[in-house]
Design a protein that fits this description.
about 80 residues, alpha+beta, SH3 type barrels, 1 helix, 5 strands, about 25% helix
Length: about 80
């Protein structure tokens, strides 16, 4: 199963590369698919690529649901 995770853009360069934060982890990301990406934007991160933009409310709701699902998996 593949899963896209909401992540917040921390920084980016002129080549479409940058850094995002998801769940407290910062990772290098290719942001070339996101037109006019800026620090502070929320994106869906999949396999090292930001594949779409979303608003902060939707990002936080999705992260909350993912945490709830993870909690249900804990024995």
């Amino acid at each position: 199963m593949c899963l896209g995770i909401p992540a917040k853009v921390i920084s980016l360069d002129e080549n479409g590369q940058g850094e995002v934060d998801y769940l407290g982890t910062r990772v290098k990301t290719n942001l070339a698919f996101i037109e006019n990406a800026r620090p502070g934007d929320w994106v869906i991160l999949h396999a090292g690529f930001a594949i779409s933009r979303l608003d902060e409310e939707e990002a936080r709701e999705t992260l909350s649901l993912l945490r709830e699902m993870a909690d249900l998996q804990d024995p």
